[in-house]
Design brief:
By secondary structure, the protein is α/β, with parallel strands linked by helices. Helices cover 36% and strands 22% of the residues. Bound molecules: flavin mononucleotide. This is Flavodoxin.
Length: 137
């Protein structure tokens, strides 16, 4: 599941989803999890030093009875703070959250991180996702 304003995190989410044979789902203001999951990949971008409040609200609906394990991914101009904040928020919810995460540069304002996520970022996301799943089996 992912929150993406400009499509970068969506690309990584879709790469992760295809690697583990599930569908990537966008988070909006009404998103909740209707049934328990063994492993949630959750991702988002960073906007003015913070995760988006839509992503935050969604995480605040979760707890360990509905999410057994969580892994965070994200894209950014340069700052991994949103990833750290997501991990901390999930841990505060007492969800078993991997300390490893996946991050990629994401293009912003035409000139920053041009062409990212690129094919290498996409491939790296797929490898990361497969390794996470292997580590939990
Ligand atoms: C309004 C806005 C604010 C941003 N603020 C930050 C920031 O504070 N730190 C950073 O590293 N990147 C920042 N970025 C870059 C985004 O995090 C980056 O483009 C990311 O890939 C966006 O993800 P998305 O395409 O999935 O929405 C910002 C981008 C936008 C559009």
């Amino acid at each position: 599941m992912y929150y993406s304003r400009t499509g970068n995190t969506k690309k990584i989410a879709e790469a992760i989803a295809s690697a583990v044979n599930v569908k990537a789902e966008a988070i909006d203001n009404k998103t909740t999890l209707s049934e328990p999951v063994d492993l949630l990949f959750i991702g988002g971008g960073i906007y003015w030093w913070n995760m988006d409040k839509t992503a935050k609200r969604f995480i605040e609906t979760l707890d360990s009875s509905i999410v057994k394990n969580a892994v965070v991914f994200g894209t950014m101009g340069g700052l991994d703070k949103a990833i750290k904040d997501m991990i901390n928020l999930l841990k505060e919810r007492e969800i078993n959250t991997k300390t490893e995460s996946f991050s990629s540069k994401g293009k912003a304002w035409v000139f920053i991180n041009k062409n990212h996520p690129n094919i290498n970022d996409i491939e790296a996301a797929k490898v990361f996702a497969k390794n996470i799943v292997k580590s939990l089996i």
